[in-house]
Amino acid sequence: IRNRLKINASINNSKIFKEISKEYGSFYNYLKQFTGEDIIYESDKVTSEISDAISVDLKKRGMKFVGPTIIYSYLEAIGIIDNHQQDCFKF
Q: Is the dihedral of CA 20, 14, 3, 48 positive or negative?
């Protein structure tokens, strides 16, 4: 990473992540307030109401570089959102 702002944001975001984990017991518990425990099935999207809401809340807490698209990708990566189309072998 060459961008000093992103380096500083990584350090700051990790501190806020730890605060959220302490407050809720885990970061997953924090996410459950937005998603419940359901897996969300949708396709052809890059953001959603959930990723928008999480992004807004994280920004209010002071995180940087956590826009709705990044949060949506994170939710896909951890399995909360399943964005595979029906003809995909991973569906």
A: negative
Whole-model pTM: value is 0.88
Give residue-wise pLDDT tens across range 13-43.
999 999 999 999 999 999 999 998 888 888 8
Q: Of all helices (H) and strands (E), which one includes residue 73?
A: helix 68-77
**DSSP structure class, residue 28:** H
Calpha distance 69→46 (Å, rounded): 6
3-state helix, strand, coil in the chain (%, to 5): 55, 5, 40
Which residues neighbour 2 within 8 Å (Cβ) at sequence distance 6 or greater?
none
> Is residue 64 within 8 Å of 15, Cβ to Cβ?
no
Distances (CA, A) of 22 to 25, 62, 66, 80: 5, 16, 20, 21
- Cβ neighbours for 86, distance < 8 A, ≥ 6 positions apart: none
